[in-house]
Amino acid sequence: MKQCNICYYRSYVGREISTCDYMLITGQRRNSDPNNCDKFINKKDKPRRSFKYLNLKEF
Fold this sequence. Notes:
The chain is mainly beta. It has one helix at residues 22-26; strands spanning 10-13, 17-20. Helix content is 8%, strand content 14%. The chain is globular and about 25 Å long.
């Protein structure tokens, strides 16, 4: 979980709340336990986020 702090898919709401936005960004499920996440990508290795896969009509 320590790597989550610098993960590309991590987003923050204020200082207290953070979430994993893997599904919003990629359009796919993570399919792994949050404590043993295998989707980690360092923020420095990726460009700015775009939510092109997000389609609110599906929800």
